[in-house]
Amino acid sequence: MTKQLRLNAFDMSCIGHQSPGLWTHPDDRADTYNTLEYWTDLAKTLERGKFDALFLADVLGIYDVYKGGPDTALEQAVQVPVNDPLMPISAMASVTEHLGFGVTCALSYELPYPFARRMSTLDHLTKGRIGWNIVTGYLDSAARGMGMAKQVDHDDRYDVAEDYVQATYKLWEASWEDGAVLRDRQGRRFADASKIHRIVHEGPHFRFDAIHLCEPSPQRTPVLFQAGASKRGRDFAARHAECVFINGPSKKVIGNIVKDLRARAAAAGRDPKDLVIFTMMTVITDTTPKAARDKYQDYLGYVSEEGALALMSGWTGVDFGAMKSGDVLRFNDKANAQTSALEAFTIADPNREWTVGEIARHAAIGGRGPMIVGSAAEVAEEMRAWIEETDIDGFNLAYALTPGTFTDIADLVVPELQSRGMFKHDYAKGTFREKLFGRGARLPANHPAASVRVRM
């Protein structure tokens, strides 16, 4: 029996997320990304479709690798302008009851102490529906914006990440004991100071001496996503992640990554099935196969292959503007961006070579991930095939048009999945973590964060 899959909507607080150029389509509303109505309407649609979460991407820099500058990204709205992804979450939480929110925050450019407060605040305001996608960044333009000459080398960024999560675990899990908050009006005591602890962290990259500023939130530590599929990223995910977001153009590439991730989790002493693994996918669907294919052909008239190459240049660290359409992409271990993005189109599948032109066409709708075009029934069956052949747990669904892609999935694909026993008919109760795993709101005792908790 096929396991029940998980669905996240994949979006970003920008105009052109994964499908450059399609913001110009008359039915697209991506350019209203800077209004609360866009986000609250989207959240209500996703909850109606029983999506597990809205997964929000983010970058702190501009895609300026392509042709050695930012002009293409700026002119074609390739993930710029881009707003802070955290800001609309409270508004979305106010119009929903169950939808989770996985938000990308790069740890390379913010100290653990204020960041921990920001996550705790959101966990309170969403009533325990917040998740953190742990990323280290991949754009030199972001590092320069933060006053650095360039970003830290790829593998060294994960050394920083290890120190960062240890610091935040201490703030979330060890500063305030269970029972520290009294809310005793008669006794005029809000908290028991003896159960609140100053955290002294002295790591190789971060140091502080402080009490966490927030009282314990429903989950304390947010649900932990991780989106690095390089070897160092997979090691990090095997130790820390609850949910892993991976990406690749084919079942072969994705299946190999999933197998490796689960093996690494087992080697780290965890149950491999404790990792909920999502891969990115774009779905174009309609009431009939022909209508879906007509829709796809219509969309092709609005894509920007040059915008797609600007995205891919930023992701891989390779300037596709300096290459010809027929040139084959080769792996370069000196690239200091997303190693996994470069691997996916080079060494991940030794039987498949990708030319620049093929990459541009592939990435023009849906970025690095695969695409399904078909009726809702065809989409459901292809999703089943992905689950069975790759051992993924679900999909981060990118849009071709917004909100139309998500509306089609909620209204057409979800009922097909439900009729096949592949998707829930209603949400489970509790926090984001409880909904995902069917266990307590806090991280389990075998997670590294549990080791810092105060023992009574």
Give helix and strand order, one letter per element, not per position.
EHEHHEHEHHEEEEEHEHEHHHHEHEHH
Overall CATH architecture of the domain at 6-148 and 215-302 and 369-452: Alpha-Beta Barrel
Q: Strand order across the biggest sheet? A: 1-2-3-4-9-10-11-13
| Annotation, overall tally of beta strands | 13
| Proportion of residues in extended strands | 15-25%
> Uncertain runs with pLDDT below 50, 5 residues or more?
none
Structure characterization notes:
- With 456 residues, this protein is an alpha/beta fold.
- It has a domain at 6-148 and 215-302 and 369-452: Alpha-Beta Barrel (TIM Barrel).
- It is built from 15 helices and 13 strands.
- The protein has helices at residues 36-48, 71-76, 89-94, 112-125, 140-145, 154-174, 231-240, 251-267, 289-300, 305-316, 339-344, 356-363, 376-390, 404-419, 432-437; strands at 6-12, 53-57, 100-106, 130-135, 181-184, 189-191, 199-202, 207-210, 223-226, 243-246, 276-286, 371-375, 394-398.
- An eight-stranded parallel barrel has the order 1-2-3-4-9-10-11-13, surrounded by seven helices. Strands 5-6 form a two-stranded antiparallel sheet. A two-stranded antiparallel sheet has the order 7-8.
- Helix 1 links the parallel strand 1 (6-12) and strand 2.
- Helix 4 (112-125) crosses helix 6, helix 10 packs across helix 12 (356-363) and helix 13 (376-390) crosses helix 14 (404-419).
- It is globular and about 70 Å long.
- The mean pLDDT is 93.
